[in-house]
């Protein structure tokens, strides 16, 4: 740990406001709020309402749709003050037995300058850090130079179900803001803060095969087909060994990045094949091993992925059957030019053309992608403030490899969007031992407070 890090850690530990809201983060992590399992959403949304009201915000908790929506307003008394929006989400992915954790994932654990827990980076930690920054500013200055609105949804990890309806409902209160700061972001492998202006979209779907009314005896395996073999062959037809999508009508629709967007990624992207290998302790070879193809795919190209496969007997011992049913959970990560329904239509046509008409596709979720060239005046101001705070150049990227509802938000509000956060390259979002560095948590608070101050 550097001397500067030690100073930040000491400041984190001594700051009463920050410690108060870090305790609130512990309470938020302890409460499961998982949309896909329909656990704890209203309870955590209610906790957020209380937390922001205690901080002086005017809060709306709207549970009209699938997941409650929380909107908290801190209003500046200055006439014609501009408005900042913080977009966050309070839902998380599960942390079940399929993932190894050193400690209970729903207990925020601090070890050696790191905090571990489900949602500590994605995304509950960002909520409490940003609220800490607002409260600290108000304590020192008594009034805000800018209106600040937090919007917090509860279905981001499930393609932001019904977020568009909430945004339409509150559009008049949100449209016209100077800037919307996105949920999260990281420091790269060089320790640079990343500021990004987009993310990939996604379409998720199930593929199911029914090959017979009942399971068959496996002695017939050489003369009849079975659901799992049929499914595996159908899925194999969708992707090449190098990861390339083999479905006609997908690559042709992709909007290619501009030269500025390519230059930003070439200059600032520090993700690398080696970094990903180390972060996840990969044992299989990488599909894109050289930096150029790795970055182009990660930021600007779609990918098709298997989330899970299920078929046949999985209990103790042996059961000599040919399973009659097989299914897979699938996804395609989308880039500009691709729509969820358009991609699924192309996959359906492909499977029929390849002779796999028995593979039935059912859409589960979908959202569009968004990309920015990062030239908005409000974004340029953010970059300048960040570089002044950091004392070094920040990494500016036109998009991130992750998925989120940026397109939905921009389409509804027309507000410039930029994302930065308190994570790092090995925060392991969605994985076991999700974590943040305490010094990054505190730095994020200070930077947000500096950005608020820039509106004075």
From TrEMBL:
<dbReference type="GO" id="GO:0009089">
    <property type="term" value="P:lysine biosynthetic process via diaminopimelate"/>
</dbReference>
<dbReference type="GO" id="GO:0009014">
    <property type="term" value="F:succinyl-diaminopimelate desuccinylase activity"/>
</dbReference>
<keyword id="KW-0645">Protease</keyword>
<feature type="domain" description="Peptidase M20 dimerisation">
    <location>
        <begin position="198"/>
        <end position="353"/>
    </location>
</feature>
<dbReference type="InterPro" id="IPR011650">
    <property type="entry name" value="Peptidase_M20_dimer"/>
</dbReference>
<keyword id="KW-0378">Hydrolase</keyword>
<dbReference type="GO" id="GO:0046872">
    <property type="term" value="F:metal ion binding"/>
</dbReference>
<dbReference type="GO" id="GO:0006508">
    <property type="term" value="P:proteolysis"/>
</dbReference>
<protein>
    <submittedName>
        <fullName>Putative succinyl-diaminopimelate desuccinylase</fullName>
        <ecNumber>3.5.1.18</ecNumber>
    </submittedName>
</protein>
<dbReference type="Pfam" id="PF07687">
    <property type="entry name" value="M20_dimer"/>
</dbReference>
<keyword id="KW-0479">Metal-binding</keyword>
<dbReference type="InterPro" id="IPR002933">
    <property type="entry name" value="Peptidase_M20"/>
</dbReference>
<dbReference type="GO" id="GO:0008233">
    <property type="term" value="F:peptidase activity"/>
</dbReference>
<dbReference type="InterPro" id="IPR051458">
    <property type="entry name" value="Cyt/Met_Dipeptidase"/>
</dbReference>
<dbReference type="Pfam" id="PF01546">
    <property type="entry name" value="Peptidase_M20"/>
</dbReference>
<dbReference type="GO" id="GO:0005829">
    <property type="term" value="C:cytosol"/>
</dbReference>
